[in-house]
Amino acid sequence: MATASSPRWQRLEHDERRAQILACARRLFSARNYDAVSTTDIAREAGVARGLLHHYFGTKRDLYLEVVRSLMRMPSNPVPQQTPGGGLEAVISDSVERWLRMLERNRGTWLAAIGARGLGRDRQVEAILDQAREEAAERLIGALQSCEAASAPAPDELRAAMRAYSGFAEAASVEWLERRRLTREQARALLVRGFMSIVSEVVPAVEHAGVKVAVRQETSSAAEPSRASTERQH
Hints:
234 residues; mainly alpha; Arc Repressor Mutant, subunit A; 2 domains; 9 helices; elongated
């Protein structure tokens, strides 16, 4: 007769078993710090032998990195889904809501991954996050261009602004989930209105600043031959 602590054996296909182990590991890493979770804990939660866990994922660290990768497939900032007929604000509002729900379900793992749990930055985790940020920025740009019916390549200023929004979103998540200085609704408003302000005010201001710098450089370059000629005459 099985005891409460015995593995809950079930016959599952390879992909199903792997997904089950991953889901159990994500729950445990979200509830506790990395060091407080053992492979024995994960195997017991998943109802498998510990050897099977190692067979699918290798070491505990390998499994943790896979948990972070699976979390980053649910992106590192609000990523829009194409909504035909929806305006930009409606699209961003929907994506922010979905992102906040994802963070609520994976609070501990998310905070650990972005370094908000006092665990420090991890080079491999940071590489996973960086890729997720870049992909999220691409999709934000795609949503913006779709709403504006634009087809030209995104300017560097817009791409930089979307990457900056990633940092903004991550900081907002910490203020909500960890420091409790924002409520969920406040975090939602900050992310939606912040994005709209970046698009409508910040990006144009950054582009204008770049134009002013380019004009000054061109004026300075044009003045150089004139100054050199005057010096030769003297």
